TrEMBL record:
Residues 1-24 form the signal peptide. This is DUF192 domain-containing protein. It holds the Pfam family DUF192. InterPro entries: DUF192, Saro_0823-like_sf. Gene3D superfamilies: Protein of unknown function DUF192. Keywords: Signal. It comes from the Bacteria.
């Protein structure tokens, strides 16, 4: 079991034991810090999920997301990152991103699907966008994203 998965299970167990509401019942998180990213000539406004709870909730329970927005998941260190779509209502594409901002691989994900979608190699960042955004903008594995978050490490 990966470290990320163990952390997620520990978080869920702690939440259930503490009487905290189940993650599925929580509303969408809309107040996370935001940063601007670029890829080529395109700008993306992203919410940053950097704590275990923020990453666990992610885009759950969102009914829509503006076309130029996304969510950037930031992990403490590179590792195999795997994502699923439990309680996520909109189709997304996950871009698994190396420390320098280079997209390692992309994965299309279906709403409410609990299949794992994993990084092809250890990464520190995962960017979720509305499904189709990367294809429409001809952004593929190997392209590099810009932004202060990638320069901070």
């Amino acid at each position: 079991m990966s470290l990320t998965r163990r952390r997620s299970l520990t978080l869920l167990l702690a939440a259930s034991l503490s009487g905290a509401p189940a993650l599925a019942q929580m509303g969408p998180q809309l107040d996370l810090p935001r940063v601007q990213l670029t890829v080529g000539m395109y700008r993306i406004d992203v919410q940053v999920a950097s704590t275990p709870l923020q990453r666990q909730i992610g885009l759950m329970n969102r009914r829509d997301m503006p076309p130029t927005e996304g969510m950037l998941f930031v992990f403490e260190q590179p590792g195999e990152q795997c994502f699923w779509m439990k309680n996520t209502l909109i189709p997304l594409t996950a871009a698994f991103i190396a420390d320098d901002g280079t997209i390692v691989n992309l994965a299309d994900m279906k709403p409410l699907d609990e299949s794992n979608h994993c990084s092809a190699k250890p990464v520190r960042y995962v960017l979720e966008m509305n499904q189709g955004w990367f294809a429409e903008h001809h952004v593929k594995a190997g392209h590099k994203l810009g932004g202060s978050v990638f320069q901070a490490r």
